Amino acid sequence: MQAYGQFLPLILIFAIMYFLLIRPQQKKLKEHQSMVTALRRGDQVITQGGLIGKVSKVKDDNEIEVELAEGVKVRVVKSTIAQVISKTEPAAANT
Questions:
Q1: Domain with 79 in it: what CATH number?
Q2: Would residue 93 count as lying in a domain?
Q3: What is the distance, to the nearest Å, from the Cα of residue 18 to the centroid of all Cα atoms in its chain?
Q4: Boundaries of domain holding 26
Q5: pLDDT digits (tens, 9 = 90+) for 24-70
Q6: Distance CA 67, CA 49 (A)
Q7: Is this prediction's pTM over 0.85?
Q8: Which pLDDT score, from 0 to 100, does residue 7 have?
Q9: DSSP letter at 94?
Q10: Sign of torsion, CA 13 15 17 19?
């Protein structure tokens, strides 16, 4: 019975750490991943390096092409996109 009393503070500390640190970080990571997977041509983005540009091409699962200025295009790893400033509307389907 006394052994359980010794472990109770340790269990409480782990529970507090989980709810204050681990869970919010996992939620933030999940939101970032969904933002990155939803990127498409025409979206205006900010990279983690602070560059602002427009997505000109989504190359594959891990890479996009961002146009920083007219005629200046750079390849960027998707996970380095920090924020999407403006999203483009999806093209209307012809019916």
A1: 2.30.30
A2: no
A3: 21
A4: 3-86
A5: 999 999 999 999 988 889 999 999 999 999 999 998 778 999 999 99
A6: 15
A7: no
A8: 87
A9: P
A10: negative
Give CA–CA dist 75/66, Å, rounded: 6
- Asked if the structure places residue 43 within a domain, the reply is yes
Continuous H helices in the chain:
2-17, 23-37
* Overall number of domains in the chain: 1
Q: What's the pLDDT score for residue 51?
A: 94
Return the half-sphere exposure (C-beta side, CA atoms, 13 A cut-off) of residue 23: 7
74 has which bridge partners? Answer: 66
Cβ-contact 64, 78 below 8 angstroms: yes
Whether 47 maps to a domain, the answer reads yes
Is 65 inside any structural domain? yes
- At 28, list the tokens: 């933030």
Buried b (16+ CB within 10 A) or exposed e, 10-47: eeeeeeeeeeeeeeeeeeeeeeeeebbeebeeebbbeb
